[in-house]
């Protein structure tokens, strides 16, 4: 990626909804082709995106004002995380990362790693010390990113009809 590109991390707007939904559909299809069971049961869907944006959970990473990556960031609210087979590192406030999706047009450029940097800065700026995230066993790309970014495997959670690997990173 050229260094003169203008990269911005911001809240998603309702006007971004169609492009975000398109990007999520690309991710659903990519997972299907890669043989992953994640996101193959009608979730997330267009309503999920609309709900994320209206609740201020939706964020985008834009390159030259074009949406490249989508993510939902949810403060202190993931009921599934209250029962973990294992143990979280902390019991205080946290932010949950959900629904990371990269546009086909920008895939393979390391943008998810960049996204995680922006998320960590943002979460720290909100004075929240911990990020929690889960992913499928069969999502090697995300598992690799979590490992690279220093997320600690905490155990398993049951979410959206399946067992997920749960991770946490303590920021401060």
From TrEMBL:
Domain N-acetyltransferase: from-to ranges: 7-172
Highest taxon in the source lineage: Bacteria
Entry's Gene Ontology molecular function annotations: acyltransferase activity, transferring groups other than amino-acyl groups
CDD domains reported for this sequence: NAT_SF
Cited Pfam families: Acetyltransf_1
SUPFAM superfamilies recorded: Acyl-CoA N-acyltransferases (Nat)
Protein name, UniProt field: N-acetyltransferase domain-containing protein
Species annotation: Chryseobacterium aquaeductus
């Amino acid at each position: 990626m050229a260094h003169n590109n203008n990269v911005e991390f911001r809240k998603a707007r309702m006007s971004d909804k169609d492009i975000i939904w398109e990007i999520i559909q690309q991710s659903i299809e990519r997972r299907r082709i890669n043989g992953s069971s994640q996101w193959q049961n009608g979730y997330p869907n267009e309503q999920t995106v609309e709900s994320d944006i209206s609740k201020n959970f939706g964020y985008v990473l834009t390159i030259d004002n074009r949406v490249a990556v989508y993510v939902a960031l949810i403060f202190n609210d993931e009921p599934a995380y209250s029962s973990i087979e294992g143990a979280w590192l902390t019991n205080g406030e946290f932010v949950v990362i959900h629904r990371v999706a990269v546009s086909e047009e920008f895939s393979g450029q390391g943008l998810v790693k960049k996204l995680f940097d922006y998320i960590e800065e943002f979460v720290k700026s909100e004075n929240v010390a911990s990020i929690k995230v889960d992913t499928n066993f069969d999502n090697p790309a995300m598992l690799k990113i979590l490992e690279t970014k220093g997320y600690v495997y905490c155990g398993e959670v049951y979410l959206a009809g399946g067992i997920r690997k749960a991770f946490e990173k303590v920021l401060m």
